[in-house]
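Hello forum,

I keep getting stuck at the same step: I have a sequence, I want structure tokens, and every attempt I make locally crashes halfway through. Rather than fight my setup again tonight, could one of you with a working pipeline run this one for me? It's a single chain of 418 residues.
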Amino acid sequence: MSTQVVSAGAARRRERRFALFTLLLGAAVPLLFLRGATGGIATFVLNDARGERFLLPDLVIPVDLTLVLLSAAIVAVGVLQLVRPVGRRAPLAVGAAGGLFVVAVLVWATTGASVSLVALLRGALFASVPIAFGAMAGVLSERAGVINIAIEGQFLAGAFTAAVVASVLGSAWFGLLGGIAAGALIGVMLAGLTIRFQADQIVSGVVLIVLATGVTSFLTSQLLASNTAWNSPVRFIAAPLPLLSDLPLIGSIVFRQTFLVYLMIVMVIVLQFALFRTRWGLRLRSVGEHPAAADTVGIDVLRTRYRAVVLGGMLAGIGGSWFTLEAASQFSKEMTGGRGFIALAAMLVGRYSPVGAMSAALLFGFADSLATTLQRLPVPLPSTLLRATPYVITLLVVAGLVGRLRVPAADGKPYVKQ
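Reply #2:
Ran it on my machine without issues. Output:
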């Protein structure tokens, strides 16, 4: 009983800290943004620059009134947390307040200017691709009981191989297959180290990241620098879907994307269904929860884990291919920029669920797109600080919104067949 009282007291104190943080956000809006916004307006364009079949009017809003309303809404969320315990919904309340604060920043930055809301949201979806694929790779591995820290290494290997193969063979499709193979290779190495030889899973992942970073950097300087034709990959281009791309607003955001964006959406749906609605998914999750019990009913624990880790490596390889087949025109050293670790954060925020991981990936993708948009506006902030926005948001989200997380019971624990 005393333990329950202490736990309830700790939870209530945590809610109060969240509430105070929310109130600070609400007070910061008028203090930071309202001074120079008097009488200003912000314009948000709701149509694609390339033309729409159904035109929507621009959204023109008064900045000062909007900031006041956003501040009041954030303060109301904070007061609600203080007055009425919200329990497990406290992180969601803070997340909602943080979202309103981001809207306030965007409105303030757009004072006297205009921003294409379509381009901002489409960019967010586009930037979420590698994070979503990396997070799905982590979900597969950790649901099977293997911690996959090596996603960043799989990204680098996939990006490098995709660039070289697409350049040499002149096909983005072959480049994508090369990136998948490279990610699978890192997955095989991770599975061998952690499942067969029972090496420490965290250390093994870090070693593979260092290996992939060193090998790709060496080959880039020694091979690609003197053979530019090997680093000029054919890339996927945007392919609007008939009829769907003509839908107002959502058509321009979702259905005028590249192949890997569509593949990401399909893979999230398929993997969510496969993990939680099929016998294969039940078996995979069982070896991550209670491998001994799974073994007694005839499930090959080690083989199931091998397959999950390698399949996760293939997904991470797709995410790595995005960097050179869609985002950039060539491979450069360490171009993934730590997004493999952001993918791990997305996996945690999504609570080991493909749909949840994609939702978190969209959040981080929005942060990336927002940083790019703010750099184009007359915002009195250094560009280096704006470029750090996705990483700052990652720290805040992991620190404040993950909360108490239930990991698979056998996650990170090697299985020795009796």
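The radius of gyration is 23 Å. If your local run keeps crashing, start a new thread with the error log.
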